[in-house]
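Reference record
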Amino acid sequence: MRYRLLGNTGLRVSELFLGTMAYGAPGGLSESDARRVLDHYADAGGNVVDTANFYGDGRSERVVGELLAGRRDRFVLATKYTVTRDPTDPNAAGNHRKNLVLSLEESLRRLRTDYIDLYWVHMWDRHTPVAETMRALDDAVRAGKIRYIGISDAPAWIVAQANTLADWRGWTPFAALQVPYSLLRRDAERELLPMAESLGLTVAAWGPLGHGALARSAGATKEPAVVTAVRDIADELGVTPAQVALAWTRAHSTAVHPLTGPRTVDQLDEALSALDLTLPPDVVARLEKATDFTPGFPNDFITEVEPSVFGDAFTRTIPRHPTPGLTTP
């Protein structure tokens, strides 16, 4: 296992993040099965364990807390808040200070720890000023209950605004972004991945297998063309479809860390092996052609007009950071 730095911090995080949404959930992993997967992940050098306060109505956090007992400090433990703790209480959800404080205290108890390494805002709350959220998160960092912060499922402009406020006011900035990203869902390439690259954020890519659709070894009726392409390329390379799909998520940016929730040790091994798979450029091009995805305005417009706007020298200029979704000259 190799490690990268979390955003603009010095924290080392493994290339593959372990998701625990199914831990303790009905029809999910039993505690014994979850322990086998987590132990194998740790033996492979994995150190990021990701959960949320509402997964299984808190059962995921309880199971994770039990599994990490006696070795908690060796892991980068991540959890989330935002989702309602009580649908009958209007203040039991959202990103305001009251819900943050109460959600955090509940998570600390369930996880059997006195601090969270990475605390995610689970979703943009359009009713709470972003300044309130950032100040409340910073207060929790200064109190020693959180080490680093991240945000999931939010517009790029909100994340940029939040980190600009943090920079101006000396608050803790977001170090990481969590978004859905797969060959079946490339929307993040429009604004979110370029924003993350520009601000130096780590990107946790959830759903990298398209909820299992990209991992199938047998065809299905009316499946998207990219699913067939993944399977064909896997056969050509002598790997599995899941490994091709996971390797593709890392092809555009070193900031991306696949976030997977394997249910068995074999599935985890398959994901770990994908970390050593580098897809040739022509394979990446074939996969992306099959997705029928375009960045849309303004990205495609900028790509089209840049040579005429900036002149011949533009084509000989090497960018500092290639931007996902834009064609590199």
